[in-house]
Fold Cell division control protein 24 OB domain-containing protein.
Amino acid sequence: MEPAAVTASASADGGAFLEFVDYAISVITSSGGDGSESPGAGPAPARPPWGWTVAQVLKSCRAYSSGVTAAILLSDLFQSWTEQRKSLTAKTKVEVTSLLNTRSKRRRLPRTVTIDSIHEKNFLSPKSVLEAVVIDVFVLPGTNIYMLTLGDMWSTSTIDLYLHRRYYNYIGQHCILKKGREVVLTGCCLRTAVVEGSGHARILPTEYMVILLDEEQDEDAMLLAAQFCTYSFSSMMEEKSRNDVVYSFYARIEKIETLEPFGCTERKQIVLVDNDDEKIKFILWGEQVSLANLFSVGSMLALDSPYISNFAHNNHEEPQELCLEYGSATQVYLVPIAQHEEQVGCNILVLLFSAVLLTKT
């Protein structure tokens, strides 16, 4: 195929040129790259963009002024595409690793799956756990729907998540959910490209996402000290008009236990201990029990606006002691336990909060 012939064909009706471009794209796509990349959506799409392919073909035609064959063009295209995918993959991997520089201090949760494995299997179980970092937050064009691009430490791929409206305040009002923020989520379902006709797989909205906080970061320490260290469990128990108060608690997870089903409904309880060594049960019902897979004993849980109820041990007892539940307005933050490190209590957080304020005045 001579350069002049390609140009003439393109300028006439474009038939032969466009036909070759489509053929080249199909060949490169079916080849699957060099075997080092994960299939599905990732830092670079598995299918070369049409515009990129056209530009590369013209570039090769100009480079071989004495003439070029279809085999040479395909070889150049394949090599360029492989190098581009490697470059983009490496760039994304470096970015994710830098954003997850604290991940090595924590244990991986038991049900954790990787983004690469999701793309490979084109499947995601609702019981699986995804430990991820936010790479990007954006709005779908022409809508008011927020999307998160997520990456993880073990994958070269990324994946997009439709954000549940339960968490929209994290973006607009509190600005907590942003690039670099670590999250853990479960109860997820996959919107696959094959079934839905999209260009790549995405995760559908889930109610069960927990935002991770880091006490060593000024912004997170200030949030914890200002919002979650005002009330103790004892102050709630003593308050007669407790239903008129919006409570926020900060406590250590002491136990995670499975309870006897209430009727046909599954239950789990998280035993929490606050800074005054007072204990209370945080009860999860039905589908909520999957939240327990995101927690670990020893980690600190920050509960905003929990639903206050009365706890019954089994189906035959009347509700007795007070307990907390995951209500429609409840928001959960987690400060994961770090290996070989002590957790910081509310008293230290208050001192840290005061010190930060002094340095900023």
